[in-house]
Amino acid sequence: MEGPINGGMLYHEVQESKLCAVHCVNTVLQGPFFSEIDLAALASDLDRREHQMMQQVSHESFNVSMDGDFSIQVLQKALEVWDLQVIPLHSPVAEPAQVDPELENAFICHLQDHWFCIRKVNGEWYNFDSLYAAPEHLSKFYLSAYLDTLKGFGWSIFLVRGNFPKECPVTSGEATNGYGQWLLPEDAERIIKSCNSGQRRDRYQQPPTEDDELNAAIAASLRDNGGEVGTSGNDHDDELAAAIAASLKNSSPAVVKKDGGEVTATPVPALARVTTAAGGEDGESERKRSKSGLQEK
Questions:
Q1: Are 33 and 25 in contact (CB under 8 A)?
Q2: Quick one: which of 9, 134, 241, 246 is 20 to 30 A from 210 by CA?
Q3: Could you tell me if 212 and 250 are in contact, meaning their C-beta atoms sit under 8 angstroms apart?
Q4: Side by side, which strands form the sheet with 156-162?
């Protein structure tokens, strides 16, 4: 049985300038394999070939913008060096991944000028978005819903397949590019819990978190049991829904904000999770406890 890659550690890169494409490629590979200079060279080579095919002389680049955003072709070329294929998720060859995404190993996501990677490392899924302070763990159940929600928000999603590197050639605990970091899963979880994600979601229209999904599922359950929340005429359900919504508003996953070249993170209080749905004996007990708590307040 193979051991964990990189000794069980997670490789994450925090956003530097507009190098999200570099961060995305490196977190797919789980190591600081590429720099912005490497991707720029690939973009230049692609431009030269495309200009030759079109039989024109032009200084315009089709593969890197003036502000440093790279095309999917550049990311494909970079990953091809490591015998990895980048496939649009909507293509027929990727159909199995649409049904069972948890059986794959990596996805690349893109919207506007931002790239990020969702990657399975040592059997667990993580969101390696460079705007997060650390990798965010994703449950296998939530992975499919998360990808669907990304698509609903207009994100382009690509499947990555092939022989992923088993180890990073860097042997020290520090990354060599200045913005990478090696984290144990428990350290990543601690960082995520201590930070706030408001700035990131505002900028990139990021989809709901698992807590948001939980809130929506509970609201749907309450509607099924007594009409629309807030208009059902059932005080127990309405008060429970209001209490849950208020609780969920106080928590969200960690991100980083670029402010004057520095990375900052804002702590948030821990979320009191609700583990029983409304309805049934357990749900009735939960409603009574919630209502009792509201009355005491």
A1: yes
A2: 9
A3: no
A4: 84-88, 156-162, 106-111, 114-121, 124-127, 136-138
CB 47 within 8 A of CB 62: yes
- Type and span of the H or E element at 245: helix 235-248
Best CA proximity match to 184, nearest among 132, 137, 131, 115: 137
The DSSP element (H or E) to which 88 belongs, if any, is: strand 84-88
* DSSP conformational letter for 91: S
Helices then strands, counting H and E runs in the chain, come out as 10, 10
Give, in degrees to the nearest 5, the angle at Cα 254 between 64 and 104.
65
Sort residue 167 into left (φ over 0), alpha (ψ -120 to 50) or beta.
Answer: beta
- How distant, in Å, are the alpha carbons of 97, 145, 166, 244 from that of 154? 18, 14, 33, 29
Backbone φ and ψ for 155, nearest 5 degrees, come out as -75, 140
Q: Which residues are known catalytic residues?
A: 20, 114, 129
User: Do residues 191 and 134 make contact, with C-beta atoms less than 8 angstroms apart?
Assistant: yes
pLDDT, tens digit, 9 for 90 and up, residues 206-233 = 555 555 555 555 555 555 554 443 444 4
How far apart are alpha carbons 45 and 57 in whole angstroms? 14
**pLDDT (tens digit, 9 = 90+) per residue, 162-203?**
999 988 765 444 555 678 999 999 999 999 998 854 444 444
Q: Using CA atoms, how far apart are residues 108 and 91, in angstroms rounded to an integer?
A: 14
pTM: 0.66
Tell me if 74 sits within 8 A of 46, measured CB to CB: yes
State residue 178's pLDDT score: 73
Residue type, 89: L
